[in-house]
Amino acid sequence: MQSNSKLYVGNLSYSTGEGDLQTLFAQAGSVKSVSLITDRDTGRSKGFAFIEMATQSEAEKAISMFNGKQMGDRTLTVNIARPREERGGGGDFGSRPYRPGGRPRGRKY
């Protein structure tokens, strides 16, 4: 069973670094890891991160301490991270049937 010690931290300033988050969340307990999510093309922060605390109680303490609090000019969103959803393989386009030719049906051109 997975413990809920991994946190989602959102609404971060693009200038916020992993070290800033490590320092801030250490006030709530032992930080196991910090993953600041960045754009793979530009390397720029996407404005959110995942932080893993050592225990579930420390994670809950971090939520109560930092959710809704100001960090710089932003109000942080801090909650338990949800498991990553499986992403589709692409090319499915919902359940539309494939129609070659690219023209709508029913009308002759």
Structure description:
This protein has two helices and six strands; from the N terminus they run βαββαβββ. By secondary structure, the chain is an alpha+beta fold. It has a domain at about 5-80: RRM (RNA recognition motif) domain (Alpha-Beta Plaits, 2-Layer Sandwich). The chain has a four-stranded antiparallel sheet. The longest helix is centred in the middle third of the chain and has 11 residues, at about 55-65. The N and C termini lie far apart (about 60 Å).
What is the topology?
Blueprint: E1 6-10, H1 18-25, E2 31-38, E3 45-53, H2 56-66, E4 70-71, E5 74-75, E6 77-80
Antiparallel strand pairs: 1-3, 1-6, 2-3, 4-5
Key features?
single chain; 109 residues; alpha+beta; Alpha-Beta Plaits; 4-stranded antiparallel β-sheet; 17% helix
